[in-house]
Amino acid sequence: MLWRLVHHSMVAIGIGLMLALTVPDWRALYGDSLSDAFDVVALFFVLDFVLRFYAAPGAPGGEHRGAWRTRLSWLVSLAGVFDLVAAIPGLIALPDNRDATLIGFIWVFKYVRYSPGLSILERVIANARQALLSVLLGLAIVLLAAASLAYLFERSTDPAFSSIPAALWWAIVTLTTTGYGDVVPHTIAGRMLAGVVMVCGIMVFALLAGILATGYAEEMRRREFLRTWEMVAKVPFFHNLGATLIAEVARLLRVRDYPSNAVIIRRGEPGDCMFFIVEGEVEIELHPQPLRLESGAFFGELALLTGAPRNATITAVRPCTLLTLDIVDFFELLARQPELARVIHEEASQRLGPGAPVHAALKAMIARDNVPAS
Amino acid sequence: MLWRLVHHSMVAIGIGLMLALTVPDWRALYGDSLSDAFDVVALFFVLDFVLRFYAAPGAPGGEHRGAWRTRLSWLVSLAGVFDLVAAIPGLIALPDNRDATLIGFIWVFKYVRYSPGLSILERVIANARQALLSVLLGLAIVLLAAASLAYLFERSTDPAFSSIPAALWWAIVTLTTTGYGDVVPHTIAGRMLAGVVMVCGIMVFALLAGILATGYAEEMRRREFLRTWEMVAKVPFFHNLGATLIAEVARLLRVRDYPSNAVIIRRGEPGDCMFFIVEGEVEIELHPQPLRLESGAFFGELALLTGAPRNATITAVRPCTLLTLDIVDFFELLARQPELARVIHEEASQRLGPGAPVHAALKAMIARDNVPAS
Amino acid sequence: MLWRLVHHSMVAIGIGLMLALTVPDWRALYGDSLSDAFDVVALFFVLDFVLRFYAAPGAPGGEHRGAWRTRLSWLVSLAGVFDLVAAIPGLIALPDNRDATLIGFIWVFKYVRYSPGLSILERVIANARQALLSVLLGLAIVLLAAASLAYLFERSTDPAFSSIPAALWWAIVTLTTTGYGDVVPHTIAGRMLAGVVMVCGIMVFALLAGILATGYAEEMRRREFLRTWEMVAKVPFFHNLGATLIAEVARLLRVRDYPSNAVIIRRGEPGDCMFFIVEGEVEIELHPQPLRLESGAFFGELALLTGAPRNATITAVRPCTLLTLDIVDFFELLARQPELARVIHEEASQRLGPGAPVHAALKAMIARDNVPAS
Amino acid sequence: MLWRLVHHSMVAIGIGLMLALTVPDWRALYGDSLSDAFDVVALFFVLDFVLRFYAAPGAPGGEHRGAWRTRLSWLVSLAGVFDLVAAIPGLIALPDNRDATLIGFIWVFKYVRYSPGLSILERVIANARQALLSVLLGLAIVLLAAASLAYLFERSTDPAFSSIPAALWWAIVTLTTTGYGDVVPHTIAGRMLAGVVMVCGIMVFALLAGILATGYAEEMRRREFLRTWEMVAKVPFFHNLGATLIAEVARLLRVRDYPSNAVIIRRGEPGDCMFFIVEGEVEIELHPQPLRLESGAFFGELALLTGAPRNATITAVRPCTLLTLDIVDFFELLARQPELARVIHEEASQRLGPGAPVHAALKAMIARDNVPAS
């Protein structure tokens, strides 16, 4: 944890120094001290790499052959490559300080290693690889065609279109709808072409959005399920569900983390989900004396059942990991699982006392199907 | 209601005054009166805040400790923060009128409190927090890399790229495909880099669209269900549905509000949904004399069953809240719920008279499965 | 049909004349004739409106009260409003020809009436009304805040930021990532603000895309179902399906229209769907002599069952309306409906002859479950 | 394969030559040799077309009538059109070399033939044809209206708005948010109009994204299924599944190809899917001696069942085609198919040895429902 903080600070400092070193005024004033500081940071990352390489996970000296093999396999792993890359500025900058400082920006990739979200994006892009390449190929075709035609239409009036490679600059600026305005068509044909290119640009945009949206939705569903699945096993309540239901329930639940003293439910708010405690402890602010619930218990189902606002504030006593079940899924689950409806209803009745006002539609549901004996 | 109108007007007037105060011509002419008016608006919001703070919901004087506690908890709630923020211009502008008027624009946030749609967006963004941050981190990495490379390629030809911080301006303008055109690369390497940055910009766009589209679709589904669920309990017709079906039906229905005299169905239009009356009263324009239906009744099912256009115009006599069932879901429901199909078909037969032309596919459906005894 | 063609031509001519009238060179040369032609077109639309108003559908003279009522109800209907609007240029331009010609562009809205696709978009936008308004409100808030801050940062260096209303121009150009470049911030604070505004612009974009994508997908599903549902009733094959299945099948099928002589299936192509004939006649190019299939028959299932490429070219003899069932849905349907699998398999066996090579997985499916008696 | 490589190289060379020929400096220096090289490439594609036409698939000389018919049908097929188009530069450029070289860019369309991804995009666009045309019509309406109004507002102050056709250029640049900045409105009314046009542009963008995203997701689902369906038939394991399940399983699986020596599973990584071998052979690095699995076997299920990280590295010995089953779908499948759960569990128990730590939730699932006899 501390190590990560030091790491992040070094990255930030290193990048800050690199930025500062390129501003002429600052360089003139503090050039030497900035350079020295930069060297220190660069050296830090070189050492960091060397140490990590030596102590590669699963390579604790001893058996020499295996240790080197593990080190090499670490080197070609993602973590190893990132650390090696971070060492490069040091390797180049230490002997010769000029310009080499520029590649300090690659330290920013270090952040990538610690960002869980980026790995989702990576995977989405990797999965949609083929489709993305197709769009880029389509883009290349449009670019080349546009540049050729623009060259044909505009070359006599505008020196910026004096060759197709030059016209390509206009084409990419137009196709991405960036539109710097440094190169602009003037003939009528050229302007009509530009209009078509812009609309094509919008279509390319839209296709990419479609591809990535589809992939992202799928990947997120996968991640959420993996996290929830782990948690479900820890709540005894769910062990009583039939086997056919447990995978389905896991897909409906969501994991939420609350720090100490966080307000989970505020009295008077409308109720839109119920909670299961995986870890931690919560306190319900009841009148005579507050009630504490621990791992395995559930709460928040009353507002869903009665349709009334939350009737008590609930706070986390210790850091909590909760599973939440949304109201939409709650009713769907109840409808499909009469046994579950009965358990939750009994617990709720006990908490509310007899004769409590239950949501009309629900009452019908429970009365008719779920308590057949009564 | 009136209070809300006054509130909205004050916000609009306040912002109008602030805009006017910054136009040199108007300031010269009407500066003093504008300033005075601005002070009045600012004072209004200060008083508004003080009164609301004192009369915080659930703090009716009396028990002192509790009242202050409620006030504080109101202060840190969303409503409290918004009102406090709205009071700031007054607190600053009243002693010294210059420049301080500028922050009048924060009054516009007052609108946020009254907009139900914005709260959806808030929640979507909050839910996708992690993914959005990842995209922004990715954006930062691309920005820094692009600025460093552009500085390397362009610094000798263009003073606008004289330092990396300066090149960052170009990078953000290019990555977002804004393309002001005030800073433009001129070397071939720089232009190729620009092309890559623009395409990256499009990808970032597309990723964000994917993330937000996924989240938005899910949140809307949730809201719709909550609203419909409340309504379903009020229509006796649905109480007869089996418990397993009620949650599912609630997901298919949509709530629609109609003011007095609104035309709900126009004669001759194709029929694409049927209606259940939750509240209000409708009039069916039939020939000998119009027919009135009240809360609990349903209508509009004939056009669905016969496939013919609507055979009567139906208007709201009083403001109505209706539940609509789309034709797609209507047939799906009928197919899964023979009992429901029979009830609707009987009611429809009665309205149409015997021998009415029923949609061919439907007739088969009802004849074979739903009326087994006949 | 002819009337529609005349209509469309008049719209095109009218708009062409309006464009031509604004080009100074052409006006100088042919001004008078262009004006006269424009008057003719304008008069045409005035007459068109008057005639349609008089002959409003369902108002055949006679009963005076009712006729006028129908006319008025036509006037406030969508069709009436469009025709009235199209008459406006005539009403204004005829007495005074200058400038009034400009509003000729509203004739373009006439096209709207005949475009089925636009009505989908209209409905999508209408359904997502609330969410779109929220985004626009959010946009307004960001705009105002950005303009205020930009005014604060830039007013001393740039006359284009001399008042907040002036700064609003910069804000909208930046937020939509249009980036004309006529007004550009120069201070560091202003540029950082601009960066934030651009990223906000991208987010707004993405939110709109999400909202409209969600709504569009839903609306399309609805339209497709409506069209298919009508067709399903005309194919006897589907009448034998159980009632529970018919609505589901209708959702899987898609309507496709083929003109005379169109090639529906080309020999040697991979098979990805099967076809049911609703209307028309197709010819299968078989060796000894071609085979003709008429309304109610199905074809194209062989390639799905055997996994081999199409073994015959099939063309439309007369204009055909077909229902297509995609391979994905085909297998899903077969798996859920053993009876259906048996019928299709028997028909296919007969066409193929005994011992034909059936797709391995399918053979298992049919052998084990669907022909229990054998 | 070799032919394809030659083809691709000729396309690349041809386009490179065309680009080079338009750069004045290079033309002056190497004009003649470039021209000659271009002629060679052009001739190559002419010959390529002639040969392909003569040897059109299914036209092996002999029966003359049929052969010509096949040739013609090849000519109007997609492949034929592409090859004909590629021959055009040769037909034009050979007699007269000037300017005609420009149309060399159409060779780039040759790439289209070999890109599987582009055919997906083609089909998505074809399916959404109607909706896309509607959006383009809407775009045309907005363009015309915007240009007319801009002409009205700006014509007196800016010669760039001197006619509606001229104003159309501004309108398209603004609507697509390209914003060159060469034509910019200066009046207040013109700027407000511009703001509205920009927001409309964003909406058009968003609509397109929605349309294409919907279509793309559907088309991808279709393609994946087709590929998987073919593979499923080759894995004996799936033949034992009930017929109702086989289509569903095919939809959950994904095809993955691995080259020789590729690492499929790395020891210590978290397990997120299991694998079925369709073709090829894999090696599991176990301690006493490695284990080899061939076509029909499955692996990787242990980490899913125990929740522990992968316990062995698995590499492809020969090029492998695998079907992967994601953890989300794995548990869903197990829950719905107790028999399948038992088979996988037994195999896993054997591999793990008795008393192995199984994921808590799963143990409950298997214990209660799946092995009823124990």
Description:
Four copies of one chain form a homotetramer. Chain A has 15 helices and eight strands. Chain A is of the alpha+beta class and about 375 residues long. Chain A folds into three domains: about 110 residues, Four Helix Bundle (Hemerythrin (Met), subunit A) (Up-down Bundle); about 90 residues, Helix Hairpins, CATH 1.10.287; about 140 residues, Jelly Rolls. In chain A, the strands form two sheets. Chain A has a four-stranded antiparallel sheet. Chain A has a four-stranded antiparallel sheet with strand order 2-7-4-5, with no helix packed on it. In chain A, α9 crosses α11. Chain A is extended and about 90 Å long. The C terminus of chain A is likely disordered. Chains in contact: A-B, A-C, A-D, B-C, B-D, C-D. At the A-D interface, α7, α8, α9 and α11 of A face α1, α5, α6, α8 and α9 of D.
